[in-house]
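Extended Data, panel c. Modelled sequence:
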Amino acid sequence: MTLKDRFRRISARVLALKGDKAAIARGMALGVFIGTTPTIPFHTALVLGLGVLFRQHIGAAYVGTWVVSNPLTIPVLYVSQYELGSFLTGMGQGGLQFTDYSLVTICSMGGKILIPLLVGGLVMAPFLALAAFFLTKRLLEKARS
């Protein structure tokens, strides 16, 4: 599937959502925010919890998490978040040194990976969410006018 085909499929999903244009755009922004953070095992729970708490469009939020956090984008997203977080926290000066790639080794490095990843994700998320809001709102206004 080409990038153009992928964009068409995502656009079709967004356009099929029922509701107010601004509400859908806010839901998409929430989903992109959640999808950008390195909380992948909890995306659905976060969408449901925060969507209900903030009264956002849950369907749009779910689409937003999937747009940002999928097998094609996660490696690029997580590496860039880690690098940004390492720079901001000063924790990545020596770089990561793996002696092996076992689960025990990775878990023992927990904070050295998790803290920069979370910081980078939380810094990056508002910018991507804001862009998602305006792009979604524009797409809906253009398609529904």
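Residues 104 and 110 are 10 Å apart (CA to CA). This feature is highlighted in the accompanying rendering.
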